[in-house]
Design brief:
The protein has two domains: 88 residues, no CATH class; 144 residues, Nucleotidyltransferase, domain 5 (2-Layer Sandwich), CATH 3.30.420.10. It is 45% helix and 14% strand. The chain contains twelve helices and five strands. Strands 3-2-1-4-5 form a five-stranded mixed sheet, sandwiched between helices. The relative contact order is 0.11. The chain is an alpha/beta fold and 273 residues long.
Length: 273
């Protein structure tokens, strides 16, 4: 290790000074240079290439445990601590999971609708059942929030809204887009969680004025809105580590989207981040 340090720093400090400081002989250092890399160092160099490739293939998300698992799956006999050391030497690290953000505030005095959907996520035609939810997305300038409405028949996003604040207007803007683009007949079933954004007087008035039936998940039961939860989970996982440069760029990119299928939305959102 001392000889390797001297080799790295000799462009800045004289070799004689470095050898004296580290208590090694100059002759020993030059003999080490003539011997070249050891077998272990050569193996490390090959492993570093494979580690960098696996890290890049994961979207720079994986840390040493997952990189180690990938190498084992390729019949590479290497220890986890060795992978961690080589990743440190290459300045590679996994994406850390950010702190959970609460997007559902069910502590309010507004009336709560019954669960009319009852986890029946299939329908025979479009504009019969919509599900909606709000999620959070990290950017380098802070959190932004996305409200989206999905049609259960096609699994298309029919309405959405993005903002830096989570309030009633976020959900109302997504609903307004869905109503404008789809123009559903009365009797459509609209399912959401019990959040104050959906239970508010303004939001419920919009539903009632258009003859839309309101359905809400049971308290603390995310499975009642599993389609929306699954969509947002996949969307966050596909987001590039580090986030967008700022939320306005992400918003501009997202507003250029046309409401096609969910798969198209995932690809488009990955591009703007």
């Amino acid at each position: 290790m001392r000889f390797r340090f001297i080799q790295t720093e000799k462009a800045i400090y004289p070799v004689r000074v470095l050898c004296r400081t580290l208590a090694v002989s100059c002759a020993g250092f030059y003999a080490w240079c003539r011997r070249g890399l050891s077998l272990r160092a050569q193996q490390d160099a090959v492993l570093k290439v494979e580690i960098r490739a696996a890290h890049a293939a994961s979207g720079k998300r994986y840390g040493s445990p997952r990189i180690h698992a990938d190498l084992k799956a390729q019949d590479q006999h290497v220890g986890r601590k060795r992978v961690a050391r080589l990743m440190r030497e290459e300045s590679l690290e996994g994406q850390r999971k950010r702190r959970f953000r609460v997007t559902t505030d069910s502590r309010h005095s507004h009336p709560v609708a019954a669960n009319e959907l009852k986890r029946n996520f299939t329908t025979s035609s479009p504009n019969k059942i919509w599900v909606t939810d709000i999620t959070y997305i990290w950017t380098r300038e802070g959190w932004m929030y996305l409200a989206a409405i999905l049609d259960l028949f096609s699994r298309r996003v029919v309405g959405w809204s993005i903002d830096s604040h989570i309030d009633r207007s976020l959900a109302l803007d997504a609903l307004a887009m869905a109503l404008k683009t789809r123009r559903p007949e009365p009797g459509l079933l609209h399912h959401s969680d019990r959040g104050i954004q959906y239970a508010s007087v303004e939001y419920q008035s919009q539903l009632q004025d258009r003859g839309i039936i309101c359905s809400m998940s049971r308290k603390g039961d995310c499975w009642d809105n599993a389609v929306a939860e699954s969509f947002f989970s996949t969307l966050r996982k596909r987001s590039r580590p580090g986030g967008s440069r700022n939320w306005w760029i992400a918003r501009i990119g997202f507003t250029s989207y046309r409401p096609w299928r969910i798969a198209s939305l995932k690809i488009e959102f990955r591009m703007v981040r």
